[in-house]
Structures are given as structure tokens and as C-alpha cells.
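TEACHING EXERCISE
Course module: macromolecular assemblies
Task: Read the component lines below, then compare them to the predicted structure of the full complex.
Student: A.B.
Group: 4
Components provided:
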Amino acid sequence: MQEKTIRESDKQRESMERALKTLGNLIYDQITNREFPWIMMQSRSMDNIIYDSEIKQYVLGDKMVRRHSRNIAHIRPFTQFIWTAWFARELLRLRKTSTLREVYYSARGQRDIEFKNQTESDNIITDLETALNRPREDFNVYPEERSAIFGDLTIEYTVPGYEGKRMNLTEHPDGVMIGPALTSSEFIETSADKVLVIEKGAMFTRLVEERAHERFNALLIHTAGQSPRSTRTIIQRLCRDKKMPVYIFTDGDPWGIHIAMVIISGSINAAHLRGLATPEAKWIGVWATDIINYDLPTENLTDFDLKRLKELKEDPRYREELWQREINTFMKIGKKAELEAFSRYGLTYIVDEYLPAKLELA
Amino acid sequence: MTKPEVEITYQSISPSDFFYRNREIAGFSNPSRAIYAAVRELLENSLDACESISIPPKIYLRITEITPSDAERESAVYVLRIEDNGTGIPSEHIPRCFGQVFYGSKYNLKQARGTFGLGGTITVLYGQITTHKPVKVVSSTGVEIHEYEMMIDIEYNRPMILRHTVLENKKGWRGTIVELHLEGDYTRSMSKLYEYLKQTAMVCPYADITFVDPKGRLYRFESATNVMPKPPKTVRPHPHGIDVETLRRMTATSKVKNMKLFMIEQFQGVGVMTAEKFLNFAGIDPKTDPKSLSPDDVVKLVRAAKEFKEFLRPDASCLSPLGEELLSTGIRKELNLTEKDFLRVYQRHPSTYSGFPFIVEAAIALGRSLSKNEEGSKMIYRFANRIPLLFDESSCVVWKVVNKNINWSTYKVSNDTPLVIAVHLCSTKIPYKSVGKEFLADQPEVEKEITNALRHIARYLRLYISRNIRLAKEKRRLNVFEKFLPKIAEFSAKLADKPEPPDIKPLLNAVGAELPEVERKIREVPQIAGEND
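Instructor-supplied answer key:
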């Protein structure tokens, strides 16, 4: 079992390295053939981002773009692109990981390659993802992590120095940070039969304290706001591989709704990647109708909130009845409620009353 | 009622006396302007004296300080000496040329620097009233040398000869030397004086000017050519430019019997047909005796002459423009332009205003060797009958054309482009706005010609600038490729596990291939400048 998992992660790494080397060869040969090097990739411009109602996700259309070093406007990003590919290959070869920010800093001091800001380097990394059709986690580039997981799940690390080492995710009461090591680990066994995703750290801590993982037989995941891609990958893997249903629990406002939707249907920014969305996941609250039914303390919706609600209403991902009903209700009552609003009925109310009721409904 | 005790005296004054009292209108308004004006008047006389016989001028100018600056008045006494190799003045004319206001050789109808017969005498007059010293004039027309020491009798506008010596002229010297004392402020006039000499050298590239200043410094403005512009011819007046008084005098002295012959004989470009047609138009019988014309007839004729449309254009042979070749030689020499700089000169066809013929010559220069003008505005050189105009630039029509009439952005000229513009106006009558002769009035015909001349050149300038912009762009492009291609090669080799980066030279050669072609085109521009349009 142990040897098998290591071989698999090695295999994945090797295929990624091969893809990068192929890219290098392509460009090397172009120059040798007295051709200005160029690459083709799918266009990520808005007109090529299409909603695929079949898989309920934004995907890229057929439009391709050519990045050509003959073009004076392209040559600098093109050079940065090659450098980033080389940097990714070095990461894999040295079995290191890097955050997005570290990539930005690693180019510092590289004459003529240096990025102006992290937005620029993030963009080049997305180019590389698009060109290779692989998420950046595959070449060991991760975002800054703030999200965490807690519950009865035993994992086995594959990162250097920890190969084969196992851990149960209940070992740390603050939860285990979802970083590169956890993302690349194998899931060995679990007694849980569902995943409960929570938007906010405070509520995650409350659920751990109230032993919600035992009461609901669930793994708890804290997304720290809009969930990072590695977190979405974990959620997707748990749902796909372990066949666990996923329930998402957010603030009752347009921003909370969208945190749930990105987990379910993916984001526009990651339209070039598959395997990040979990269409089976369910948003269980806080709904607008909950605000009415539970008589929750509320705040008024701001103009900004209302504008966002109107946008969501038009978004193809929100076509289904549940979403339309809740969006309309929010607009009708003009109110919103945070997860913490349940404290009005005592600290344990949410675990004792609300969640069981909502899970049953789902 | 008692009579007021005021005694009113009436007197007449001589022209000398008039200029003595009003010397500022001739440019001698203060000590620093006085030095400048004195040099200018004498130098222009010298240049005219040489050019009239097509001899390249060799002029030696020296200013020596004899009594140091007066602390209170900030002025000193100087000796100004100028030597030329011109025609020389016949002995009998010397005293009156320098001792009588309104006496000269330039009252006929052709282009000359001076026209009033005033410059030489007023300089002597100014020297005399500030230092009370005589002027020394040495001159020879090639035979014996005449040396005069003289002063002006201001009240009676006549010369007083103190000494007249005739010397042997063994070496056959020809020319004129003038030496006079005057009060002035050299330090203050220094920069303008230098600018004046430099611009004179620019507009007279065939002249050789040496200047030794009071501090002992030597300035040399060497000639760059021996070629001289064709001297102007004296012409008969054009009917369009005539006035009542001139016509009256002409009729009074005419020897012909009738008006038809009078028109043909006295005016340029009038033949039998035109004379008949015109007199018919004016309502004057062609058989009328010119002497018998009534004052009303004279006025009627002058009015008709202005309205009659069938006269030929005024004869421009009385003008002596420099020509494109000479003007460009002068500008190139004094601005130290290199082959790579842009310089284009254009001469318009003769035109007329109020019956006076004129020709506009203009030039535009642009180049790396030209430093930016301090205010960031365009450097303008103005010339009228080969005289540099240095003062009151913003009142001049040239300034108006450059700054108001022409939209330079059309020609890709930006505000900090170090542009040099030169305009030379030749005419039998320069439309000066004031007696000081420093700026041109905005005579519509003249303004139009200057505008057209500059616009014409500016079209070539635009070509030059846009090609330069393209060249810079191509160079920048090449730089970008030189910067990034090695990196692409380096990292693609590393990525592909190759020991050496691929050769990028063929790619760089392909990018740089257009450079020589663009550079060649830029160098072509001055060649186009020599072609006829």
C-alpha cells in the first residue's frame, strides 16, 4: 500500500516534468529552426469563457491564442513564461514547493525577467497552467494557506522526509492546515460519512468544541472565506473518492452564497481547469428563508449587497430553483444574517437544533 | 484782462538737429544700445559697399576702451574702428556722407540695407555729442587715399572739415576706414553685439568678419564661400506703388510730350497697350502733356493705378535674395550643423505688396547638435535685406507666423523639439513697424508668403522626424529582442536538458535587417532638399 502510493505520486511528478521538458524542447527547436518561438494556448478572455450546463461549470471555449516572441508586446511575458516553466521544473526536481508569492520573489534579481508585482507573476503561472492543461499544484506552486480540516481522517504524507508517515486529523484541536503536504497526501481511512464545509474560523472552532464531527459523523473543513483551490481539490477528492456527501454552511448574504457556489461549480478564474468543482455539494444555509423561519437578528442589505445579488441572479450557475428562490427572498426582505446570529439562542443552539434540522432537509 | 506773460518762440531745426534731439528713434537710446547701433550702422555700410561691386567683404572691426567706466553712469568712452574692402567713397562725397543727415547713394529703387542716408552720419553725430571728438574717415576708390578729420555742424546739417590729407596709394588699396570716439556700455551690449555679428555671418556666408573687442578678445567669422548673390538692379517704379508726391515730381521733370509716352518711359512693365488701357481706365487723355496735369488729375491717376489690375507684376530684378544654396551654407556654418542634421531652405517666387516687390526665403534646421532654446520655444532668426533683426521678436510677423499660423504638431514637432527657423525678407521697401528697424509689420501678403514658405519646408521636416521616430523605434525594437531572446534561449535549453542554448543570431539579424534601410532613407532627406519642387 505504502509503496504503491509513493509510486503514484512519483508517476505524477514524472509526467509533469516530462510535460515541462517537452515545452522546453519545443521552444529550443523553434529557435534552432530560425523561427521566433511561440506557443498556443486556450484563450482566457471573457468571450471564451463559457458556461457548460452539463457539468455545471465555467469552461474555456475553442478560441486559441498564440503568444509569439516576434511580437514586441509579447516577448517579455513570453520570457517570463519560459523562466516560470524552468522554475517549476526545478521545484519538481528538488521536490520543493513554492507559494505564489515566493514565485514572484524568486524572479527578483533575475534581470529582464523580474515581475512588476504578484498579479503579473500569478498571471504567468495561470498561463503555464493553461498551456500545460495542469493545475499549478501539479508543479508544486500553492497559494498562502489559511484553510483547515478536522475530523476522523487518516492521511499518509508523500512529501520528502515524511513519505509513508500517517496522521489522524483529529490530532490537532485547531484543525490541520490544508497546505501542499496535506493536498498531496493519500487519504487512507475515515469513519466519517459526510463533509461539513464552514466559511468562518469562529464557527469552525465552535463546531470542534461542540464535537460536531462526532455528533454528525462528519469531517469539518474551514475555507477561510472564498475557498482556495487546494481546499476545493480536497473537497472534490473526498466527494469523488470516498463518496461522502458535502454540505456547505455560510453567512446568509450574497457573498456567502457565492462561497458555496464556487465550491459547487468552480470559478470563472479557474475556467481553464477541471477537477476543482464538486457539483454534488449542497448549500444548506444560512438561507434567506432561515432568516424568516428562525427569526434571526439581521442587518440591512447594502446597495453593494443588492448589486451583487442582481449579478448572481443573472449568472447561469444560479439558474436552479433553490438559488433563485433564496436570491429573491434576500431581495424581498432586504436583510442578511451572519452564522454567529444563532448565538442569540445560546451557544449550542446551532449544533443542537439548526444543523440537525438542515441536514435532515438536505 | 492782462495778456499772459508767455513768450512763444518759433524756430526751424535742421535734420541733424532733429536727430540730435531724437536720437533714440534711430536706435541710440542708451549707452548699451548705442554701441550696438553704431557697429550695426557702420558694418552695414561696409557690407553694402562690398556687395555693390560683388566683392566678398573682408571687414575688420575693433572697439578699444580709452577711459574706463564712469561709475555713476556705467558707461565708458570707446574708439570704434571699422575697415572694409568695399568700393571706397569718392573724395568729394566723403564729408557729406558722414557729415550731413540724408545724404547718400541708396535713394534709388533697389534692395539695400540702408535706405535713409542716415546711419553713418547719425553714428558720427552720436560720437560727437558724447565725446566731442572728430571722426576720421580714410577712403580710396583705388586711386589716391583721402584722409579726413571732420565734425558735424549740427545746427546747419553740414560737415566741418578739420583736416584733409591726400596720400599715395602704392599698393592699390581700395576701401573705407572709419574711426570715431563714442560713449557706450560694451559689457551690457556684448551678448547682443556677438549675436548680431554671428547672424550677419549667417546671412552673409561670403563675408569675412574679424572683431577685436575692448577686452582684447578676437572673434573670427570666416567666410564659407566666395559665391555672392546676384546684385540687385535699379528699376523704374511700378505704377501700383506710386504716391501723389512722387508722381507730381516725375511729371514736373519729364521731358516727354504726352501721358502715353510718360507712362511707358517712367514706369516698369508698361507698354503701348497697357498705357492706353490704363489712361482710358483712369479717364486721362493719352495726349495730355504731363506738365499740364492738374493736382486733381495726379490724385486721380494714383488712385486708378492702385485699382488697375492689368499691370505686370513688379520686376523682382531689383531684389537680391541669397538663394537656397548660400542661405543654407550660412546657417550650416554658424550653427555647426552636421551631415546628419536636418536643414532645408526654400525660396518663394517674388510677390508684391502695395507695388513693392518682395521675396521670402526661409529655412528650418533640426538636429542633435542644436541645443534646446532656454524657454523651450523655437529659435527664430529674422533677416530683412540681409540685416539680422534682434529686438522685439514677439512683435514681428515672423514670430506670429511661427507661433500662431502654423500648427507644428501637424508636422510631428513637439514643444521640446530644438527647432531653428530662419526667415529672410528681401524687398525694396521692408515693411518695418518703426524707425528702429527691428521688426516686420504684419503685411498680409508678406505674412502669407512666410507662412507658405515655412509650411512647405515643414512638410519635409515631418518626413525627417517621422523617419527618425521610426529609426528610434526600430532600434528600441532591436534592443528589446537583444535583451529577451538570450533569456528565452537560455531557459528553453535548461528546460530541455540541452547543454548549450540555441543560436539566436539569425533571429537578431532578421530583426535588425530593416535598420540600414531606414537609416539610408533618413540621409536621403537633404538630397530631396536640393531638388526643384
